[in-house]
Amino acid sequence: MDRFHQIGVFVAVAETEGFAAAARRLKISPPAVTRAVAALEQHLGVKLLQRTTRHVHTTEAGKRYLQDARRILAELEAADNAAVGINAIPQGHLVVTAPVLFGRLHVMPAVVEYLNRYPETSVECIFVDRVVNMLEEGIDVGVRIGELPDSSMHARTVGKVGLTACASPSYLAENGCPESPQDLSKHQLIASRAGNNAIHWRFDDQKNPPLRVHPRLTVSTNDAAIKAAVDGFGITRLLSYQLAPYLESGELVAILEDHAPAAKPIHIVHREGHQGSAKARAFIDLVSEQLKKNPSLQQFG
User: Fold this and answer.
1) Model confidence over 6-21: pLDDT tens digits?
2) In terms of residue numbers, what domain contains 44?
Protein backbone atom coordinates (compact mmCIF):
# COMPACT_ATOMS: atom_id res chain seq x y z
CA MET A 1 0.00 0.00 0.00
CA ASP A 2 1.33 3.45 -0.91
CA ARG A 3 2.97 5.06 2.12
CA PHE A 4 1.83 8.57 1.20
CA HIS A 5 -1.73 7.27 0.97
CA GLN A 6 -1.44 5.78 4.44
CA ILE A 7 -0.06 9.02 5.85
CA GLY A 8 -2.84 11.03 4.21
CA VAL A 9 -5.49 8.74 5.65
CA PHE A 10 -3.94 8.93 9.13
CA VAL A 11 -3.91 12.75 8.99
CA ALA A 12 -7.57 12.80 7.93
CA VAL A 13 -8.59 10.49 10.80
CA ALA A 14 -6.58 12.50 13.33
CA GLU A 15 -8.00 15.84 12.18
CA THR A 16 -11.64 14.71 11.95
CA GLU A 17 -11.37 12.47 15.04
CA GLY A 18 -13.23 9.67 13.33
CA PHE A 19 -12.84 6.92 10.74
CA ALA A 20 -16.24 7.54 9.15
CA ALA A 21 -15.62 11.30 8.99
CA ALA A 22 -12.23 10.71 7.40
CA ALA A 23 -13.81 8.38 4.86
CA ARG A 24 -16.34 11.08 3.90
CA ARG A 25 -13.57 13.67 3.61
CA LEU A 26 -11.39 11.42 1.45
CA LYS A 27 -14.34 9.92 -0.46
CA ILE A 28 -13.25 6.35 0.23
CA SER A 29 -14.89 3.55 2.21
CA PRO A 30 -14.55 3.28 6.02
CA PRO A 31 -12.94 -0.20 5.71
CA ALA A 32 -10.30 1.30 3.40
CA VAL A 33 -9.55 3.92 6.06
CA THR A 34 -9.23 1.26 8.74
CA ARG A 35 -6.90 -0.84 6.58
CA ALA A 36 -4.64 2.11 5.77
CA VAL A 37 -4.24 3.13 9.41
CA ALA A 38 -3.69 -0.45 10.55
CA ALA A 39 -1.02 -0.95 7.88
CA LEU A 40 0.74 2.26 8.91
CA GLU A 41 0.68 1.33 12.60
CA GLN A 42 1.97 -2.15 11.77
CA HIS A 43 4.80 -0.72 9.68
CA LEU A 44 5.82 1.72 12.44
CA GLY A 45 5.30 -0.73 15.26
CA VAL A 46 3.49 1.87 17.39
CA LYS A 47 -0.13 2.75 18.12
CA LEU A 48 -0.98 6.13 16.59
CA LEU A 49 -4.68 6.36 17.42
CA GLN A 50 -6.74 5.65 20.53
CA ARG A 51 -10.30 4.62 19.69
CA THR A 52 -13.26 5.33 22.01
CA THR A 53 -16.98 4.80 21.51
CA ARG A 54 -17.48 8.37 20.26
CA HIS A 55 -14.15 9.75 19.07
CA VAL A 56 -10.70 8.85 17.90
CA HIS A 57 -7.74 10.60 19.51
CA THR A 58 -4.04 10.54 18.76
CA THR A 59 -1.71 8.84 21.21
CA GLU A 60 1.45 10.64 22.34
CA ALA A 61 3.34 8.94 19.53
CA GLY A 62 0.49 9.83 17.18
CA LYS A 63 0.66 13.52 18.08
CA ARG A 64 4.37 13.65 17.25
CA TYR A 65 3.84 11.70 14.04
CA LEU A 66 0.94 13.94 13.02
CA GLN A 67 3.15 17.03 13.03
CA ASP A 68 5.71 15.33 10.80
CA ALA A 69 3.00 13.83 8.58
CA ARG A 70 1.43 17.24 7.93
CA ARG A 71 4.83 18.69 7.06
CA ILE A 72 5.61 15.80 4.70
CA LEU A 73 2.28 16.11 2.88
CA ALA A 74 2.65 19.90 2.62
CA GLU A 75 6.13 19.51 1.15
CA LEU A 76 4.87 16.91 -1.30
CA GLU A 77 2.06 19.19 -2.46
CA ALA A 78 4.49 22.10 -2.71
CA ALA A 79 6.73 19.93 -4.90
CA ASP A 80 3.76 19.03 -7.11
CA ASN A 81 2.82 22.70 -7.45
CA ALA A 82 6.39 23.62 -8.31
CA ALA A 83 6.48 20.91 -10.96
CA VAL A 84 3.40 22.27 -12.76
CA GLY A 85 4.38 25.88 -12.18
CA ILE A 86 3.59 28.35 -9.41
CA ASN A 87 1.08 30.07 -11.69
CA ALA A 88 -0.90 26.90 -12.42
CA ILE A 89 -4.42 27.63 -13.60
CA PRO A 90 -7.00 26.98 -10.84
CA GLN A 91 -9.10 23.95 -11.64
CA GLY A 92 -11.27 21.47 -9.82
CA HIS A 93 -14.09 21.58 -7.27
CA LEU A 94 -14.10 24.05 -4.37
CA VAL A 95 -16.45 23.91 -1.36
CA VAL A 96 -17.12 27.23 0.40
CA THR A 97 -19.14 28.03 3.52
CA ALA A 98 -20.37 31.28 5.11
CA PRO A 99 -23.28 32.59 7.21
CA VAL A 100 -26.50 32.80 5.18
CA LEU A 101 -26.85 36.57 4.73
CA PHE A 102 -23.12 37.19 4.54
CA GLY A 103 -22.83 34.52 1.89
CA ARG A 104 -25.64 35.96 -0.19
CA LEU A 105 -24.51 39.57 0.11
CA HIS A 106 -20.72 39.35 0.11
CA VAL A 107 -19.49 35.89 -0.89
CA MET A 108 -21.68 35.14 -3.92
CA PRO A 109 -20.30 38.10 -5.95
CA ALA A 110 -16.79 36.73 -5.42
CA VAL A 111 -17.92 33.20 -6.33
CA VAL A 112 -19.48 34.37 -9.59
CA GLU A 113 -16.38 36.37 -10.52
CA TYR A 114 -14.18 33.39 -9.63
CA LEU A 115 -16.17 31.03 -11.84
CA ASN A 116 -16.13 33.50 -14.72
CA ARG A 117 -12.40 34.04 -14.35
CA TYR A 118 -11.48 30.33 -14.04
CA PRO A 119 -13.69 28.22 -16.34
CA GLU A 120 -12.12 24.93 -15.24
CA THR A 121 -13.45 25.29 -11.69
CA SER A 122 -16.75 24.52 -9.99
CA VAL A 123 -17.95 25.77 -6.60
CA GLU A 124 -20.38 24.40 -4.02
CA CYS A 125 -21.65 27.03 -1.55
CA ILE A 126 -22.91 25.97 1.89
CA PHE A 127 -24.50 29.01 3.51
CA VAL A 128 -25.70 28.16 7.03
CA ASP A 129 -25.93 30.09 10.31
CA ARG A 130 -23.90 27.58 12.31
CA VAL A 131 -20.23 26.79 12.72
CA VAL A 132 -19.49 23.84 10.47
CA ASN A 133 -16.70 21.32 10.96
CA MET A 134 -14.70 22.12 7.85
CA LEU A 135 -12.48 19.07 8.18
CA GLU A 136 -15.32 16.61 8.65
CA GLU A 137 -17.57 18.14 6.00
CA GLY A 138 -14.85 18.50 3.40
CA ILE A 139 -15.01 22.30 3.12
CA ASP A 140 -12.06 24.12 1.59
CA VAL A 141 -12.72 27.76 2.50
CA GLY A 142 -15.02 29.36 5.07
CA VAL A 143 -16.01 32.77 6.37
CA ARG A 144 -16.15 33.00 10.17
CA ILE A 145 -17.39 36.02 12.13
CA GLY A 146 -16.03 36.24 15.67
CA GLU A 147 -12.93 35.15 17.53
CA LEU A 148 -11.48 31.84 16.36
CA PRO A 149 -10.69 28.96 18.71
CA ASP A 150 -7.30 27.33 18.42
CA SER A 151 -7.32 24.85 15.55
CA SER A 152 -5.27 23.44 12.72
CA MET A 153 -6.91 25.92 10.34
CA HIS A 154 -5.22 28.87 8.70
CA ALA A 155 -7.00 32.24 8.83
CA ARG A 156 -6.82 35.64 7.19
CA THR A 157 -8.52 38.65 8.83
CA VAL A 158 -10.44 40.74 6.28
CA GLY A 159 -12.64 43.10 8.32
CA LYS A 160 -14.82 43.71 11.35
CA VAL A 161 -18.53 44.07 12.04
CA GLY A 162 -20.47 45.09 15.12
CA LEU A 163 -23.74 44.12 16.75
CA THR A 164 -26.39 46.81 16.24
CA ALA A 165 -29.74 47.21 17.97
CA CYS A 166 -32.36 48.90 15.84
CA ALA A 167 -36.05 49.54 15.23
CA SER A 168 -38.23 51.28 12.67
CA PRO A 169 -38.86 55.05 12.95
CA SER A 170 -42.58 54.36 13.43
CA TYR A 171 -41.97 52.00 16.36
CA LEU A 172 -39.63 54.46 18.08
CA ALA A 173 -42.05 57.34 17.51
CA GLU A 174 -44.85 55.39 19.19
CA ASN A 175 -42.88 53.67 21.97
CA GLY A 176 -39.89 55.93 22.61
CA CYS A 177 -36.19 55.18 22.24
CA PRO A 178 -34.43 53.17 24.99
CA GLU A 179 -31.49 55.01 26.55
CA SER A 180 -29.86 51.99 28.21
CA PRO A 181 -29.97 48.21 27.74
CA GLN A 182 -32.10 47.90 30.86
CA ASP A 183 -34.82 49.95 29.14
CA LEU A 184 -35.32 47.10 26.67
CA SER A 185 -37.50 45.36 29.25
CA LYS A 186 -40.18 47.95 28.43
CA HIS A 187 -40.13 47.18 24.71
CA GLN A 188 -41.18 44.49 22.28
CA LEU A 189 -38.10 42.53 21.25
CA ILE A 190 -37.45 40.42 18.18
CA ALA A 191 -34.78 37.72 18.53
CA SER A 192 -33.19 35.58 15.86
CA ARG A 193 -31.93 32.12 16.75
CA ALA A 194 -29.54 32.17 13.79
CA GLY A 195 -26.07 32.24 15.33
CA ASN A 196 -27.41 31.17 18.77
CA ASN A 197 -27.96 34.76 19.88
CA ALA A 198 -31.57 34.57 21.00
CA ILE A 199 -31.44 34.41 24.80
CA HIS A 200 -28.62 36.75 25.85
CA TRP A 201 -27.78 40.13 24.34
CA ARG A 202 -24.29 41.21 25.36
CA PHE A 203 -23.61 44.96 25.41
CA ASP A 204 -20.52 46.88 26.53
CA ASP A 205 -19.01 44.50 29.12
CA GLN A 206 -17.54 47.34 31.16
CA LYS A 207 -20.95 48.93 31.67
CA ASN A 208 -23.45 46.10 31.52
CA PRO A 209 -23.47 42.35 32.15
CA PRO A 210 -25.07 40.07 29.51
CA LEU A 211 -28.76 40.89 29.31
CA ARG A 212 -31.21 38.00 29.30
CA VAL A 213 -33.91 39.07 26.89
CA HIS A 214 -37.52 37.95 26.79
CA PRO A 215 -38.55 38.44 23.16
CA ARG A 216 -42.17 38.53 22.13
CA LEU A 217 -41.11 37.21 18.74
CA THR A 218 -38.36 34.65 18.10
CA VAL A 219 -37.49 33.62 14.56
CA SER A 220 -35.06 31.15 13.03
CA THR A 221 -33.58 33.44 10.37
CA ASN A 222 -32.11 36.92 10.38
CA ASP A 223 -34.17 37.88 7.32
CA ALA A 224 -37.36 37.29 9.30
CA ALA A 225 -36.13 39.38 12.24
CA ILE A 226 -35.29 42.27 9.90
CA LYS A 227 -38.68 42.05 8.21
CA ALA A 228 -40.52 42.19 11.55
CA ALA A 229 -38.47 45.20 12.66
CA VAL A 230 -39.00 47.06 9.37
CA ASP A 231 -42.74 46.40 9.73
CA GLY A 232 -42.65 48.20 13.08
CA PHE A 233 -43.19 45.30 15.46
CA GLY A 234 -40.28 45.98 17.79
CA ILE A 235 -36.53 46.11 18.41
CA THR A 236 -34.06 43.58 17.06
CA ARG A 237 -30.28 43.26 17.21
CA LEU A 238 -28.12 41.80 14.47
CA LEU A 239 -24.71 42.22 12.91
CA SER A 240 -24.12 45.56 11.21
CA TYR A 241 -23.61 44.14 7.73
CA GLN A 242 -27.04 42.46 7.92
CA LEU A 243 -28.71 45.76 8.72
CA ALA A 244 -26.63 48.12 6.58
CA PRO A 245 -29.08 48.48 3.62
CA TYR A 246 -32.02 49.20 5.95
CA LEU A 247 -30.08 51.68 8.08
CA GLU A 248 -28.92 53.49 4.94
CA SER A 249 -32.46 53.65 3.53
CA GLY A 250 -33.91 54.88 6.83
CA GLU A 251 -36.22 51.89 7.20
CA LEU A 252 -34.42 51.10 10.46
CA VAL A 253 -32.70 53.35 13.01
CA ALA A 254 -29.73 52.27 15.12
CA ILE A 255 -30.17 52.64 18.91
CA LEU A 256 -28.01 52.14 22.02
CA GLU A 257 -24.88 52.81 19.98
CA ASP A 258 -22.99 54.01 23.08
CA HIS A 259 -23.52 50.58 24.62
CA ALA A 260 -22.45 48.49 21.63
CA PRO A 261 -20.07 45.58 22.38
CA ALA A 262 -16.65 45.23 20.79
CA ALA A 263 -16.63 44.55 17.06
CA LYS A 264 -16.28 40.99 15.79
CA PRO A 265 -13.47 40.15 13.35
CA ILE A 266 -14.21 38.56 9.97
CA HIS A 267 -11.86 35.75 8.98
CA ILE A 268 -11.33 33.74 5.83
CA VAL A 269 -10.53 30.27 7.18
CA HIS A 270 -8.94 27.52 5.13
CA ARG A 271 -7.29 24.16 5.61
CA GLU A 272 -4.19 24.79 3.53
CA GLY A 273 -1.07 26.86 4.14
CA HIS A 274 0.40 29.48 1.83
CA GLN A 275 1.47 26.69 -0.52
CA GLY A 276 -2.03 25.28 -0.85
CA SER A 277 -3.82 24.36 -4.07
CA ALA A 278 -4.11 26.92 -6.84
CA LYS A 279 -7.91 26.74 -6.78
CA ALA A 280 -8.08 27.62 -3.07
CA ARG A 281 -5.36 30.28 -3.20
CA ALA A 282 -7.03 32.05 -6.10
CA PHE A 283 -10.43 32.12 -4.39
CA ILE A 284 -9.03 33.25 -1.03
CA ASP A 285 -7.13 36.09 -2.69
CA LEU A 286 -10.20 37.16 -4.67
CA VAL A 287 -12.73 37.12 -1.84
CA SER A 288 -10.24 38.74 0.57
CA GLU A 289 -9.63 41.60 -1.85
CA GLN A 290 -13.36 42.20 -2.32
CA LEU A 291 -14.16 42.10 1.40
CA LYS A 292 -11.31 44.45 2.33
CA LYS A 293 -12.62 46.99 -0.19
CA ASN A 294 -16.15 46.92 1.30
CA PRO A 295 -16.51 49.95 3.61
CA SER A 296 -19.40 48.40 5.54
CA LEU A 297 -17.03 45.63 6.70
CA GLN A 298 -14.22 47.97 7.76
CA GLN A 299 -16.05 50.68 9.66
CA PHE A 300 -15.04 49.40 13.09
CA GLY A 301 -11.35 49.57 12.21
Assistant:
1) 998 999 888 888 888 8
2) 3-84
